What we know:
Chain A is an alpha/beta fold and 300 residues long. Helices cover 33% and strands 20% of the residues of chain A.
Amino acid sequence: MSNLEVKFKDIKFKNPVIMASGTFGFGREYNEIYNIEKLGGISTKGLTINKKSGNDGIRIWETSSGIMNSVGLENPGVKGFIEKDMKFLNDLDLVTIVNIGGATLQDYIDAVNLISKENVDIIELNISCPNVKAGGMAFGIEKESARKIVKIIRKTTSLPLVVKLSPNARNIVETAKVCEEEGADGVSLVNTFKAMAIDINKRKNIFNNTYAGLSGPAIKPIALRMVHEVSKAVNIPVMGMGGITTYKDALEFIMAGATCIHVGTANFINPKIGLEIIKGIDEYMKKENIKSLDEIRGII
Amino acid sequence: MAKIISNKYLGQDIHVMKIEGNFKGEMGQFYMVRSWDNYPVLSRPLSIHDIDDEGISFLYRVVGDGTKNFSKLEANDEIKLEGPYGNGFPKVEGKVLLVGGGMGVAPLYLAAKRVSKLEDVEKLDVFMGFREKEMLKGEYEKYADNVHINVGGIITEDVDVDKYDYIFTCGPEIMMEKLVKMAEGKDTKVYVSIEKRMACGIGACLVCTCKTKDGNKKTCKDGPVFLGEDVFYE
């Protein structure tokens, strides 16, 4: 096996492959299918201070090469997560990223305060969920609202802080720069693209919220471009994601500047996709005689 | 990868596909099935229709790109299966009725087969409703005491819930909800098999939520079979 280790600031990942928030639960279900300690890390399902039951109506819709989802942050709340799943994750040898969302600034502060008492490796601040009416993506559209929340959350926690950015931001590069200025340790991008579908027979929108989040291979080229632009513009490390389905996709994101990558929708194509991507990167490194991913990171 | 033994068209857009191998599964459980690489993105959840010494069978209706792909497969073609997933129908006793509407008959064949072998089952009836024409009657007769078919009508109108201790049902929610209401306040227990759009199939992604008296449940993991009176129907 090649040395796939990557460092994200001071945090060591055994490989750059992380399972994306919302597609992997808290890891339990996939751990029944394979040993998830083989992964670099996982980002939990987005958590809010209080339990949320999520959106009504259809929550998933398939598109050409992708899916739209409108789960609406259904989650057990930070407390429920700590009681039920924190220990399970702490007992595993992998980097635990806890994804935090909220409707109001105070929600974010309370959730971050509570989770900061736990043994968590990274907080991923979700200011990019398109599926909740209040908060969520609203904080990630304008750079000044992103600045406000990152500034406060930076003061709230000493844990490593990564801000998850929205591709729907007015200017994702500017938003990333603001996160860096306000002390974020890294950024992760991209969350899903705001999208929609219509049932022409019923003459109605498919989703109760009208809009939903598009992910999967369909968004990969745009996500890659955004990761490239952001990586060039900031000095903090970048977690790249958006439709990564193969090791080739993962390597493209790394060459575009990502320190590590998240795999989301592809888990639904093949539940063991994470292992295949790790194996593919390993074989590529051997074939190309690459000793460390640093040799190819950001070369484009 | 598994190999297809046969893939037959039965009419009314319904096909039955048999796949070679030693597959596990309880009545009411399902597999995530795909016969393509990355596109369409999602696998298709198909309930187990039958399991025998040769392999596993799925009954499916062509409704979109995925099932259309299935319908084009031939013997010896390859297919991927993940599973079995979910909670199926419980082991029961006494007088049992299975009620299927349209494609909902799919999981009831394995159910008929398994229920008929349960020691304490005294009687097993199968009621099936179809829109255009009857099908599969002879198959279900192998295991049931009585197979009743309704074509073009409303199958629930033919059911007398008082005659049964347990009813297993799968099909349109309006049909299953009706059966649950008919059994309200009686000793008959109704178990429903819920169909939802799924993505992961294992309980991680929360897109197949079923609302119940006990809060949100995952259709793929907590279900697809639920006690009928617990479910809030859409």
